[in-house]
Amino acid sequence: MSAFAALCAAVATMSALAEVWPDGSQMDAWFADRAPIDEAKLGHLRRAEEFGARPDCGEMQTETLQRGIDAIAADGGGVLVLGPGVWNSSSLFFKPGVHFKLEKGAVLKGPADGADTPRRMTRLVGLSFVYNVALVNADRCDGFTLYGDGMIDGNGAKTWIEFWERRKSEKGFKDWTQARPRNLYVSNSRNVRLSGVSLKDSHIWTTHFYKCSRVKIDGVRITAPGPKTPPRSASTDAIDFDAVTDAHVWGAYLDVNDDAIALKGGKYYGCEKLPENGPNMNILVEDCVFGPVNHSALTCGSEAIHCRNIVLRNSEIRGDGWLLHIKSRPDTRQLYEHILVDNITGECGEAFGMLPWTQWFELPPGVGKQETRAVDVVFRNCKVKFRGRESIDLDPSFMKLEGYVPPAFSDTSLRFVDPLIGTEGSGSQYGGMMPWTWRGLAPQKFCKKPVCAL
Fold it and tell me: In whole angstroms, what is the distance from residue 445 CA to residue 89 CA?
């Protein structure tokens, strides 16, 4: 074989092995790169004590930690390092070229009262407005890296208790009228890395990436308690991608009392025309474990416009939530396309849910419902024990589902039992205690012995 022929054969082999997205386009080699962080490339390591910060003293270290960030930026960049101990702080604002390392035993702990964080223009629930910022903030910080074996503790229990009390007592209470800082907010940045750290007990969304590209998240542990371990957390999504292009999540353990991974991008009539909103494109989630408290492993919406090439694969799910949930807002034009769920094991309430979602519904007078289309939604190669196959309730006035390859039962004669009233029946359309009962809908039917395969 000539050298030219050998080269052609090698190229052909590489092309055959190259991964593709659900729409058939080739996946960039960036997604195959799982190289560990090269700390030497981040710059000098600067310990927080150098700037006067002290752990375990019970006093807020916000000023000294921010002084360190500013000094490192002025010196051309580097890494702010927290060693073992509890570092109490309010909001920190990282600058370009400054990274953050939490060593084993280090805990960055936020304020118990969310109002003790500053209010600035930020992003939440698909809107841009003045609100309490996160504990850790990085805006226009290309290459920002947060890593280590330490922890970020949002300290959100007090806020959760107040949240549930207000939801019961105040008619029309809206989440964002309460001061609820996130643990991490990264915006308008490229080549972002979050690696190894634990994040827990955020007041609201735990990590939020807005208008970012090339985001890698690996080896993290993100948790917040559910109803069985009070106080129950609220709205503590583990990872929110908001108008993000190219994101890769692997090796994560996610277990929060809301969606594990949620795709955002904007909401309300005409929002697709506003520059602050945008699509989520090329999102790969693999080799993760989704814990029992999650409402859903992967959720598209509700504050989303367009999600394309979304892959969840080679992962394990536990608990009563959905595997994939599509939230369909009648006040927002939405397109969810080319979504693949592949090689999942474990157990869940239901594999797939697609229902109307009318929380904080708003449409101008005289404007009709906006279309939600889901196209090319595919489940394959999965073996999951689940209590119901799917919840699909398509309102024909605005919802469309096309090219759907559904999960399949390995035994179509499964028997279901309602744990609340003890009745039995057969069928597979509805199920999953958590997805239904937390929304106050009618109790549904469960597998007595769920042995189902997707």
Answer: 47
